[in-house]
Amino acid sequence: MTIKFPDNFLWGTSTAAAQIETASDHNWKNFKSRDGYTFLRTSDHEKRRDEDLEYIKKFGSMYRCGVDWARLQPAPKADFEQDVVAEYQGFFQKLLDADMKIMFVFHHFCNPMWFEKKGTWLNSKNISYFMDFAEKCIEHFGNYAYIFNTFNEPGVYALNAFMIGEFPPQKKGYFKGNRALANMGEAHDDLYDLLKAKYPEKQVGISKNTGTFFGTNLLGKWLAKKFDWWFIEKSASYFEKNDFWGISYYVYMPFTPFPVSEIENPGKLKKMGIPNDKMWGYHPKGLKDILLRFHKKYKKPIIITENGVCTDDDAFRQQSLKDYLHTCHEAIKEGVDLRGYIHWTTIDNFEWNLGPTYRFGLVRVDFDTMERTMTGAGKFYTKITQENQVTI
What we know:
Layout: E1 2-4, E2 10-14, H1 17-20, H2 49-56, E3 62-66, H3 69-72, H4 82-97, E4 101-107, H5 113-117, H6 127-141, E5 147-152, H7 154-162, H8 174-198, E6 204-215, H9 218-237, E7 244-255, H10 268-271, H11 285-298, E8 302-307, H12 314-333, E9 338-344, E10 363-365, E11 372-374, H13 376-387, E12 389-391
Parallel strand pairs: 2-3, 2-9, 3-4, 4-5, 5-6, 6-7, 7-8, 8-9
Antiparallel strand pairs: 1-12, 10-11
Helix pairs in contact: 6-8, 7-8, 7-9, 11-12, 12-13
């Protein structure tokens, strides 16, 4: 069966600057990942922009990306480094020349070390420093953007950096996580107003991570429900001032009563009969439930800002594209105003606290030589984006 998507449906891929550019003086530099690597050299994107551009151009008409705050602004409220500005502007212009639309992301889990030392997102006074960075981004990069994404997955960041201690600065505490979330929410609202004043015709949204959480026993059901409330409902509540919801979806997680993932409990999901990638359970139909849930509650346009699987199995990645796009198409038929699908990710990168062996790329990177190779999934996705349809 071949399913066709609406005319003008947006296709693309997404990256984060810190995950593909060599580490500058930011909070992830020298972080030791789970797979034994050190967060320094990632994918050499800053040295291979033209090469990577050729891949980006194959994957639809939109590229979701950001810039390295630490490289651009070495001190609080400092002027941007003009050579770095010119580097990004040159790349963005090449994207526009290739008829690509840019979704510009202001914050994606990464802060300058000077921002961290001032209390990071736990300190409400730091909002002014972020807003200064954002104003300068608008000045230098705003005209290149087709659409704006203020924060990437703030719930994931607040959870991992300030509640369970997996991301820098590795704090632990429920109230710390909520405080960071609230401060990012305030920054989002301020940035939304700033962007709409400057570019009233351009859409401004948030990227909201979601998932499917369920319990296998009474206590597990209670914990899963509580987690779902915090991770989806509560974290979304700080970012409701938007023109669209960007939805990320990866996770299918049982609570037994504690959460089970392939990361923390290798092999357990398989024993439970749950398909999985290298990180989480795999259940594409859950994405449809999320899309309907946000559509019914907010009645706003939605863009899939991130979706993919962590795997070395190319056939599995191709099948996941079919499965996820099928569920997206079903949601559209049921009335969801889904405007686009942006796959995570363009090229293999440094997967934050887990490391580079956790691969999501449509383009495979040899981390010894940095050589790029188009995968079968990459070719398959290229065909989908060109034809605006997929055979499932």
